[in-house]
Design a protein that fits this description.
Length: 184
């Protein structure tokens, strides 16, 4: 069993470098350290059978001038802390919205964020204030002082797959339609 795990890890590492369709379908969508409440709808592939049926974070549709986003809602401290940690694949135009209730300076530390992301800070009025593009991934072994940090001002922060913000027209000044979400 241990050898099979090592072979799978090597195969996954090779797939990560190649990113062929066959490899992306075979690679797991989450690592064991992922939030068990992540909804399947945002992930680009099936969840492990052991995680099936345990996912309860709600999702919302956020509308930008040119796109619709489907986002898992992180409205409580625990969900915000776990965020998209240990997720390996997100669907296009899917991600997470972090809800803070009022505009604040928010710094995100990307520890255990296994995929690069675009981060969008949004004011209470739905106006994008800051965009951090192509925030690099970290691994569980990345030293804390080498983990990416990004800072912005907003009542919400949206995380999407890296490289999506610009082509989707998500830039400072653009207004998003966000349903009312009350933080817990």
């Amino acid at each position: 069993m241990r050898e099979a795990g090592a072979i799978a890890a090597v195969a996954f590492a090779g797939c990560a470098a190649i990113l062929t369709p066959a490899c992306t379908r075979a690679a797991p969508v989450v690592a064991a350290c992922a939030n068990p409440a992540l909804p399947q709808v945002i992930l680009d592939g099936p969840l492990p059978a052991s995680d099936a049926g345990t996912h309860s974070l709600p999702t919302v549709e956020v509308t930008a001038p040119a796109v619709h986003l489907t986002l898992a809602v992180a409205a409580d401290e625990h969900s915000r802390e776990l965020g998209l940690m240990c997720v390996t694949r997100l669907r296009p135009r899917h991600g997470m919205i972090f809800v803070f209730g009022r505009p604040l300076q928010q710094e995100f530390w990307m520890k255990n964020t296994l995929v690069p992301l675009d981060m969008i800070w949004v004011g209470a009025d739905g106006r994008i204030t800051t965009v951090a593009q192509r925030v690099p991934a970290s691994t569980r072994e990345t030293p804390d002082d080498a983990v990416a940090r990004r800072l912005g001002f907003g009542a919400y922060v949206i995380e999407l797959r890296s490289g999506e913000a610009a082509p989707d027209g998500l830039r400072p000044g653009v207004v998003l339609s966000i349903p009312k979400i009350i933080p817990e």
